[in-house]
Amino acid sequence: MLRKFRILKVLFVLFFIVPTLIVPACKSKAAKGGACMLTVEAPFENNSVIPIEYTCDGRNVSPELKISGIPSNAKSVAIICDDPDAPVGTFVHWVLWNVPVSSSEVTIPGGLTKVATLPNGARQGLNDFGRIGYDGPCPPKGHGTHHYHFKVYALDTMLNLEGNVKKKDLERAMEGHILAKGEIIGLYARK
Fold it and tell me: 6-27, pLDDT tens digit by residue?
């Protein structure tokens, strides 16, 4: 009897619980109950070391990001890059929004300049260094390996944000507009 109960319990989990935890890939519209998953590619593999060029020890330029699986009803893409391993708590390295979408794929070029408005109309906000644009990984020396989360969001609108926009401002503005999201994590340590 106990064995039958365990088998029924496993079957229940497999058929009713697990499918609700799986987020389907985006095709043309957001999945019911949440955002779809985007594919994010960078000049490094997920959970691998970020090349020095994209850090404070190198050229400190933003990496190229290729985003695919964007729903057809998306109007823009936003990006937040942060480091939850910083000694002071989560440290923000990049806030970017209103990257226009015209297909299921978008490429964010590397080496974006540190200006508020980019040529394609996209906007950049303040990072926790107090500067506009991207500032790469720069953990304290000897503080171990940090994880840099490049979080990407496909939105159903262009956002009307002005001024010194920070991560929390962008997150608040995105509420209710996220169709799909994805992430790639890069690692970096300074000896």
Answer: 554 544 544 554 443 333 444 4
Q: Are 120 and 99 in contact (CB under 8 A)?
A: yes
Whether residue 151 is contained in a domain is answered as yes
Q: Which residue has the tokens 């009897």?
A: 1
Rounded Cα distance between 120 and 104, Å, is 17
In a domain, 168, yes or no: yes
Side chain identity, residue 20: T
* Domain of residue 65, CATH code: 3.90.280.10
